[in-house]
Backbone:
């Protein structure tokens, strides 16, 4: 009998059809332009999760109602992430409050490059405080920006050092391994008890050697698997994991499940 699904994917997306140029450069390079243009279907996502042995995934979209509806339709398969607009701070905080208290979302996701300001900008600080108040995780993009219409500098992982110092209780997950500043990401995650790195949008054969070493050794409690579906098919990074990273069984389980349970304070068995 095959093993029951047990992997947690920390970042998957629902997309509405998009006809504009924003994001087309990166989706095109990943061979997923159709997903951007046509949008995604939750049914297709669940099918990929089933095929890949993924039990649970962190689900985000700019449409929080769609995320809540999908979580309710497939109970136990997703934990919601709200992606608010930080420019209207009170509306942003009310949205977070509703998503967490009424729909059980577990995280707030903000990608600073979209707003053109680094994570240390005062615009985000009420969001961090609200996350601590509600005991939910803040998750964000670190590293360069794939879309070619945005500045990459705001994704420097070192900005999270200051955020973690100002909010030591805040659980922070930085996505995309921080590349090309992966060593900055490693340093910040190693330094701060409540900072983790996820591997969204990156495949094991392209992981920098320093990151592979971190995963295997002193950072084995700090790395979280994520695909960034539909940018990456879920099965691709999982299929490459053993060939290019050769994680031992205990480290593999931490990376694929247990670290996500702690980072997002999930109510599932570790």
Residues:
């Amino acid at each position: 009998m095959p093993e029951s699904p047990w992997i947690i994917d920390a970042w998957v997306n629902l997309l509405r059809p998009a006809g504009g140029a924003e994001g087309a450069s990166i989706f095109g390079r990943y061979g997923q332009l159709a997903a951007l243009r046509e949008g995604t279907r939750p049914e297709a996502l669940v099918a990929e999760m089933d095929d890949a042995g993924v039990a649970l995934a962190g689900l985000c979209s700019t449409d929080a109602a769609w995320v809540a509806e999908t979580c309710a339709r497939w109970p136990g398969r997703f934990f919601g992430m709200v992606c608010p607009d930080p420019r209207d701070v009170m509306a942003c905080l009310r949205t977070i409050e509703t998503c967490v208290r009424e729909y059980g979302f577990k995280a707030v996701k903000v990608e600073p490059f979209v707003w053109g300001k680094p994570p240390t900008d005062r615009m985000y600080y009420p969001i961090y405080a609200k996350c601590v108040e509600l005991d939910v995780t803040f998750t964000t993009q670190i590293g360069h920006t794939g879309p070619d219409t945005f500045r990459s500098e705001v994704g420097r992982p070192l900005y999270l050092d200051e955020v973690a110092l100002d909010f030591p209780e805040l659980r922070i997950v930085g996505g995309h391994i921080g590349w090309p500043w992966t060593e900055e990401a490693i340093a910040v995650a190693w330094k701060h008890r409540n900072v983790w790195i996820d591997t969204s949008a990156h495949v094991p054969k392209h992981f920098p050697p320093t990151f592979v070493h971190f995963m295997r050794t002193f950072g084995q409690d700090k790395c979280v698997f994520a695909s960034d579906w539909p940018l990456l098919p879920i099965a691709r990074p999982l299929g490459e994991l053993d060939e290019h990273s050769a994680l031992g069984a205990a480290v593999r389980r931490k990376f694929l499940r247990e670290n996500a349970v702690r980072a997002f304070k999930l109510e599932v068995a570790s």
User: Anything to note?
Assistant: The mean pLDDT is 94. The domain at 7-263 is CATH 3.20.20.140 (TIM Barrel).
